[in-house]
């Protein structure tokens, strides 16, 4: 393992998984007294860092002593943010090339430029769909478009899902 691997999960003061940081950053937070180890699973393995004056045990999960809440707003609807939400994938056929923005209810028919009316579509799907709704064009969306989630909530959902997978196996 290298020290740049994002191997340590940081929990907030209120025990919400926030993000994943690299080992070096975790050592700094622990050494500065800004975080504490949390023993979360019985088989937790610590990694030990020694210097002449201190020994630091770094577990895979640490918890911040202070709140690190940062204000967050739903990002405005932009090509960059839609690409990120839709993971650079056409939401009709899964193609990753020649990506455009499709308004599910076409703008010419009153469709708005809002999160649940925009998706990434490849040029082929977009021209096939034309001025129709997906139903009229007999095309199915891979995902129901929604506004992006708060990054902490998205991370927390993913984190617990991964733990679930570990436990299930
Ligand atoms: Zn497509």
UniProtKB/TrEMBL annotation:
Keywords, in A-Z order: Endonuclease, Hydrolase, Nuclease
> Which named protein is this?
HNH endonuclease
What the entry lists under Gene3D superfamilies is as follows:
1.10.30.50
Report domain HNH nuclease positions. 77-127
Q: Which CDD domains does this one have?
A: HNHc
Nuclease among keywords: yes
Q: Which GO terms describe its molecular function?
A: endonuclease activity
At the top level of its lineage, which domain of life is listed? Bacteria
Listed InterPro entries? HNH_5 (IPR029471), HNH_nuc (IPR003615), NA-targeting_endonuclease (IPR052892)
Please give the Pfam families that the UniProt record associates with this protein. HNH_5
Q: Which organism is it from?
A: Hyella patelloides LEGE 07179
Keyword Repressor (UniProt): no
């Amino acid at each position: 393992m290298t020290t740049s691997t994002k191997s340590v999960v940081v929990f907030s003061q209120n025990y919400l998984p926030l993000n994943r940081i690299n080992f070096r950053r975790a050592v700094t937070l622990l050494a500065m007294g800004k975080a504490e180890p949390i023993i979360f699973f019985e088989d937790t393995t610590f990694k030990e860092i020694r210097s002449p004056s201190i020994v630091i045990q770094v577990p895979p999960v640490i918890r911040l002593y202070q709140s690190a809440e940062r204000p967050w707003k739903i990002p405005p609807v932009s090509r960059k943010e839609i690409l990120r939400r839709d993971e650079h994938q056409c939401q009709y056929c899964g193609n990753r090339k020649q990506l455009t923005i499709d308004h599910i209810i076409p703008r010419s028919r009153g469709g708005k430029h809002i999160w649940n009316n925009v998706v990434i579509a490849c040029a082929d799907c977009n021209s096939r769909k034309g001025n129709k709704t997906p139903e009229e064009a007999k095309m199915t969306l891979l995902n129901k478009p929604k506004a992006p989630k708060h990054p902490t909530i998205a991370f927390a959902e993913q984190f617990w899902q991964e733990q679930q997978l570990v436990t299930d196996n």
